[in-house]
């Protein structure tokens, strides 16, 4: 069929980027060395469980022909009370992921600059410059 590795990866990838967004906020943690590995592992286990369970539940609720022929989003068709809620949820989730990346990237750049991991980035050791650079990249 048309389900190539890259199509399936595009479905799973957002769950992993959400986990990384949480890791980007590690500067706020009291004990990052302990919390990051534990939190990342539990986040991965949770999202993988959801991503494996939802298709099974949808498969139990629908016929094969309904899943293969529906032109609309199947979960929106069976949503209660209104199918528009699923569509709004998809838009809000995508917007939230974009905003989280926009908020996390400056902090990550600042940490790399402060640790002098990449010497050329040293001028970005202040969050103001990191935010401006991130904004220019995103909107420029």
Overview of the structural elements:
- By secondary structure, the chain is mostly helical.
- The protein is elongated and about 60 Å long.
- It has six helices and no strands.
- It has helices spanning 5-24, 32-61, 64-69, 74-77, 84-114, 127-139.
- The model has no long low-confidence stretch (mean pLDDT 79).
Secondary-structure map:
Blueprint: H1 5-24, H2 32-61, H3 64-69, H4 74-77, H5 84-114, H6 127-139
Distance between the termini: 38 Å
Which band does the percent of strand residues land in? under 5%
Structural class: mainly alpha
Taking all residues together, what is the mean pLDDT? 79
State the share of residues found in helices, binned by percent: over 70%
Low-confidence regions: none
Number of strands: 0
Shape descriptor: elongated
Element-by-element helix/strand order: HHHHHH
Radius of gyration: 20 Å
Q: Let me know the largest β-sheet.
A: none
> How many helices does DSSP assign?
6
Task: Name its key features.
mainly alpha; 74% helix
Compact overview of the structure:
Helix content is 74%, strand content 0%.
